[in-house]
Amino acid sequence: MHPINLTALVTLLALLLYMSMVFRVAGARGKSGLKAPAVVGDQTFERHYRVQMNTLESLPVFLGSLWLFTFYWGEYVAAGLGAVWIIGRTIYMLSYVNDPKKRGAGFAIQGVILVVLVAGAFAGVIRALLATGGL
Questions:
Q1: What does the pLDDT look like over 52-109, one tens digit per residue?
Q2: CATH of the structural domain 5-132, one choice from 1.20.120.550, 2.30.40.10, 3.30.2130.10, 3.90.1300.10
Q3: Which residues neighbour 129 within 8 Å (Cβ) at sequence distance 6 or greater?
Q4: What is the rounded distance in angstroms from the CA atom of residue 38 to the CA atom of residue 13?
Q5: Distance between CA atoms of 91 and 48, rounded to whole angstroms?
Q6: What's the rounded Cα separation, in Å, for the pair 8 and 34?
Q7: Residue 75, Cβ neighbours under 10 Å: how many?
Q8: Are 114 and 58 in contact (CB under 8 A)?
Q9: At what angle do helices 43-73 and 5-32 cross, to 10 degrees?
């Protein structure tokens, strides 16, 4: 197996999750009768929309740190952390749409993973710079 296949798989799964959110927003818009470009006026649509936008806001941090973490610490740990991020985001999505007050667990799971990935990527860069005399 190529040393990045698991990270590539997690990346694709994260993108599929995001795509599913886009389709859920479109479906909610259709059911609500809310016409574009409006994004307020129907609570169910607004919940789907916020989940999608919140995920879009975190995707660059997640994907960038996932790949850097993979490079410095290996793909097994990175892919495992990425899979947990996907689970957290899925829990966040389902709970936010059903009752926004109950979104905390999913948000906490993915938030902790983001912190670990960013901190791990940063530590990997610093470690590599120190080892090569680049810092």
A1: 999 999 999 999 999 999 999 999 999 999 999 999 999 999 999 999 999 999 999 9
A2: 1.20.120.550
A3: 135
A4: 29
A5: 13
A6: 37
A7: 23
A8: yes
A9: 170
pTM for the whole thing? 0.94
**3-class DSSP state for residue 135?**
coil
Residue found by looking up tokens 């389902």 in the block: 94
Distances (CA, A) of 78 to 31, 52, 57: 38, 24, 20
DSSP letters, 1-46, are --TTHHHHHHHHHHHHHHHHHHHHHHHHHHHHTPPTT---S-HHHH
Angle, helices 43-73/104-132, rounded to nearest 10 degrees:
30
Residue with tokens 């829990």: 91
Q: Cβ-count burial of 133 within 10 angstroms (0-12 exposed, 13-18 middle, 19+ buried)?
A: exposed
